Amino acid sequence: PATAPHTLLKPPAPRPLRRTFHPAQDRFEILLPSVRQIREMRVDAKLREWRPVLARIGLGAEDARAIARRAVANDTGFARELLASGKVVEDRFFRAIAVEVGLGFIARISPKQIVMDADARLDALRRSFGTRLMMVSDASGNIIHVMARADIELGTLRKWVNEHPELAHRLRLAPPSIVR
User: Fold this and answer.
1) What are 42-63's pLDDT values in tens digits?
2) 134-153: per-residue pLDDT in tens?
3) Would you give the distance in Å from CA 72 to the centre of its chain?
4) Which of 55, 65, 126, 180 has its Cβ near the most Cβ atoms within 10 Å?
5) Quick one: which of 140, 50, 36, 137 has its CA closest to 93?
6) CB-based contact 56:99 (threshold 8 Å)
7) Which of 118, 152, 108, 156 is nearest to 133 (CA)?
8) pTM over 0.85
9) Residues 6 or more apart in contact with residue 154 via CB below 8 angstroms
10) Half-sphere exposure of 147 (CA within 13 A, CB side)
């Protein structure tokens, strides 16, 4: 499709592919990024995604980069690696995520508040990552949904909250340890 001559087009995303023309040899040479460069690009992407939360919890750049590298090397999520590192208190981390994406936070849940049958509770306890969503009654008796997972993906959560603002007011984040 043709565009008006003064229309600004969004520049294409940077490509890791680099082409070099060698006129003397009349050939192109295509240089692909190394495995190490690809890993570092993935590390940088994780750090960009998590930067606002990391600023809220006060994690240093060197520690954050080391954790992101472990997440890329182990093919795990950044949140899971950060929690495993012991560099941050779980409660503080999930509170920072909740504030960043605009969700409520629950620090404690009484077993009496949980609105799930016994089989669903046992299934949630068997999962290594925690329960995806749990129904809980709040102080007013309203049912809210609580997400308490160690493998949380910030970008996915932020996208969901932006796409479903009418449902986001009923969703809360909680540290996974409170449902154990």
Assistant:
1) 999 999 999 999 999 999 999 9
2) 888 888 888 888 888 888 89
3) 13
4) 65
5) 50
6) yes
7) 152
8) no
9) 49, 50, 53, 78, 79, 97, 100, 101
10) 22
